[in-house]
Amino acid sequence: MTDSPDFDLAVIGGGVNGCGIARDAAGRGARVVLFEKGDLAGATSSASTKLIHGGLRYLEQYKFRLVREALEERAVLWRLAPHLTHPLRFVLPHHAGLRPRWMLRLGLFLYDNLGFRGGLEGARAVDLTQSPFGAPLKSQYRKGFSYYDCQTDDARLVVLNAMDARARGADIRVREAVVSATRTADRWIISSKTAVGEERSLTARVLVNASGPWVNDTLNLAKTAQPSGVRLVQGSHIVTRKLYAHDSAYIFQNRDGRIVFVIPWEDRFTMIGTTDRDWTLSPETIEATPEEIAYLCGAVNEYLDTQLVPADVVWTWSGVRALVDDGASAAQEATRDYVLTLDAEADRAPILSVYGGKITTYRRLGEAALKKLQPHLPVLGRPSWTASSPLPGGDFAKDGLDALTQSLRDQHPYLSPAHAARLARTYGTCAFVLLQGAGNMEALGERFCSDLTARELDYLADHEWAETAEDVLLRRTKLILLATEDDKDRIDAYLRARTGANYRPGRRAHVTVDAAR
Predict the structure, then answer these.
(1) What is the pLDDT of residue 133?
(2) Quick one: average pLDDT of 497-512?
(3) Which domains does the chain show, CATH number per domain?
(4) Per-position b or e across 14-52, b if 16+ CB within 10 A of its CB
């Protein structure tokens, strides 16, 4: 072929890795198209523990480079998205029958010093008999440590990368599945189908396979070899009503060598996770199992005075991580590091596949992916830029969220303190766009659940690809636990009437909600 392909880069997969790669490439001047068969962050990237962290437990596996890179990225992401990324204190009680105190102290010393802390406090010893952190714990836990990592909103992080990619010229095609990819000497010929059945086709010089758990399915679709074995590992989380009064998190050692996080969640709840077990079925069927729920309850019951039973669980989510099969005997020992495989045979258009990775290091993964592709796309040789450019709404000081919230209230005094705070931490400075021209609550339109209004639904549909109640409540706002079934039906009806869309997907299997408890 002698004509120019439609795009330089076609990305399959609208999770954090795919959207991060699309953003970086578009910002370097590449013509980018991204396909996501469902909603952005609709699978693994919305099923994480919502942490930006180095991975303290990986030090025991001598994964020093992985931990250092993740700690450096923790500081970067706090700066790029201060509305989504917030410091969170973790309390690590010493369990006399497990890792000795000297080992915990040494691990935290390394954790503090392997990477740039970026203003986070260092680790310190805690007397749990005198501290409020000891109040929820059983009396035998007398000594411990505290340290800081960061909490984030994983799904919104994905959406913001997609928004910024689009602003830089990328074509983001949500709810559009690739049905065939044909390789020629100098391009890929890609056919796709939208959720309403429209068939489309285009060409691209390079194909990026960021399909997560479906990475090998995409290779099969493209009729290429599978150069890396993939190990699918299930991670599940449970949510209960709030278990203690303070706003710090816990990290509990478990007798099987794993750790379990216990984290304040959306003011009224507590999130507990995660599990690690091999998964051999289709990723679409993933959900937290009764055994996993019992395991997480048991892990918490080892430490807290409050004893949990499965009936206390009001919400679960579960995701599948597509890790490189490194031969580890147990799922919890499989590496979380990313591997990028490039198939670039002579006279054949290149395809790059992404395996593994952590949400914390998605930006570095994107840089590494483009470096591999640069010989085939010279435009990607332009300087790296994503470490210094805020994500949408993040153009304010990393410690400026309270000031931003106050500014919202100053300009829109009809907002309650809680409403303004939620808008600030969800949208950052984009909240001013959402509220533009509104002089009172009536101007925000119909109210659906909590403080979610028609104005916010319009913004999410116009700017963030939201089409259903699940998109809004689960992945864009985290209001899912405050919504009734009637609320969800009303939101779906509003969005359908607004857009005329006839697409309404079923609920993802990795989400189970029982908000009535």
Answers:
(1) 98
(2) 54
(3) 7-44+155-229+336-381 (3.50.50.60), 230-324 (3.30.9.10), 401-513 (1.10.8.870)
(4) bbbbbbbbbbbbbbbebbbbbbbbbbbbbbbbbbbbbbb
